[in-house]
Amino acid sequence: MFDTLSDRLTAALQTLTRKGKLSDADIDATAREIRIALLEADVALGVVKTFIARIKERAKGAEVSQALNPAQQVIKIVNEELVGILGGETRRLSLAKTPPTVIMLAGLQGAGKTTLAGKLALWLKKQGHAPMLVACDLQRPNAVTQLQVVGERAGVVTFAPEPGNGVGDPVDVARRAIAEAKHAQHDVVVVDTAGRLGVDEELMKQAADIRDAVEPDEVLFVVDAMIGQDAVTTAQAFQDGVGFSGVVLTKLDGDARGGAALSVREVTGQPILFASNGEKLEDFDTFHPDRMASRILG
Ligand code: GDP
C-alpha cells in the first residue's frame, strides 16, 4: 500500500546522507519533499502540517550526536514522528473485568466489518477466549448469512434472529445476545452492525441505540484504508454520531495511497488497534505503530 510514499520518503532522506553538515536550508528542502510525498499519499492536510512543523523544529534543534551523523538524526526524527502520528504504543483491546467483554463494530457498508468479525473471532479464539458473534446488521440482505459463514469458518457461535420474522429489531437482538452470552459463558461478544454506503442519520441512530443497549467495552470504527481523504470525514461523522474507542484499518493489502491509515489516529484522537490485510480470516493482526513506520520508511 505504501510503495510510492515509501520510495519518495526514502529518496528525500537519501539526499541528506550525501551531505556532511546540514544547514537549515537543507532541512527545509527535505521537509518540502516529505510534505509533497505525504500529500500525494492522501494524508490529511492538517496532519501533514503538524508533522512537517515537528520535523523541522526537531531537526533544526537537534544536538550534535556522537553516534549518528546529521542525516541519520533526521531519519530518526522522521521515524519517531511517524510512529507518533500512528499512535505511539500498541494499544491492547480492553477486556471487561466481569465477562462478557462486548465489542461493537461500526463503519460504512463494504468497510469490511463482517469479515473483520470473523477475523477477530478467530484471533480471540487463538488467545484462549470463547467469542460469540452477534448479527445486528439486519438491513442488508444476506448480512446475517454472511456473518454465520465467517463464524463457521472461524469455528465460533453466531447469534442471529430467527429467520422469517421480518426485518427484526437489531437492538432487541443485541440485548438477547448478551443474555445468551452470559448464559452460555462466552467471554467476548462481537456485535456486527449495519453500514450504509454513505453516512446517514438513521444508521447513526441505530448504532447509537445498539451501543446504549449493550454498553460496549470497545466500539471499533472499521475503515477501509483505500478510501483516501473520505476516511477522515467518515471517521469524524462516526465519532460524532456513535463515538468509538478504537480504529481497525482494513484492506491495507490494497494498492491505494494509504493516507487514511496515516491520518485517522491523529484526526480522531483514537488509537488503531488492529489491521487487516487480505480477505482470508488469518490476514489480520494487532496494529503496531513502530512496525508500520518502519514499513513506510523502507
Ligand atoms: P461490511 O459491509 O463492512 O460488512 O464489509 P464486508 O466484510 O462484507 O467486506 C466487503 C468486501 O471487502 C468483501 O468482499 C471482503 O472480502 C473484502 N475485504 C474485507 N477486508 C479486506 C481486507 O483486509 N483486504 C481485502 N483485499 N479485502 C477485504
UniProtKB/TrEMBL annotation:
Task: Give the enzyme's EC designation.
Answer: 3.6.5.4
Biological process terms from the Gene Ontology for this record are: SRP-dependent cotranslational protein targeting to membrane
Which gene holds the coding sequence for this protein? ffh
The Gene Ontology CC terms held by the record are:
signal recognition particle
Q: Where in the cell is it found?
A: Cytoplasm
**SRP54-type proteins GTP-binding domain sequence ranges:** 271-284
Q: What is this protein called?
A: Signal recognition particle protein
- Source domain of life is Bacteria
Q: Any notes on this protein's domains?
A: Composed of three domains: the N-terminal N domain, which is responsible for interactions with the ribosome, the central G domain, which binds GTP, and the C-terminal M domain, which binds the RNA and the signal sequence of the RNC.
| Keyword field contains Oxidoreductase | no
What family, per the record? Belongs to the GTP-binding SRP family. SRP54 subfamily.
Q: Which organism is it from?
A: Amycolatopsis vastitatis
Top EC category: hydrolase
Task: Summarize the protein's role.
Answer: Involved in targeting and insertion of nascent membrane proteins into the cytoplasmic membrane. Binds to the hydrophobic signal sequence of the ribosome-nascent chain (RNC) as it emerges from the ribosomes. The SRP-RNC complex is then targeted to the cytoplasmic membrane where it interacts with the SRP receptor FtsY.
| Reaction equation(s) it catalyzes | GTP + H2O = GDP + phosphate + H(+)
Which annotated residues bind GTP?
A: 107-114, 192-196, 250-253
Q: Which residues cross the membrane?
A: none
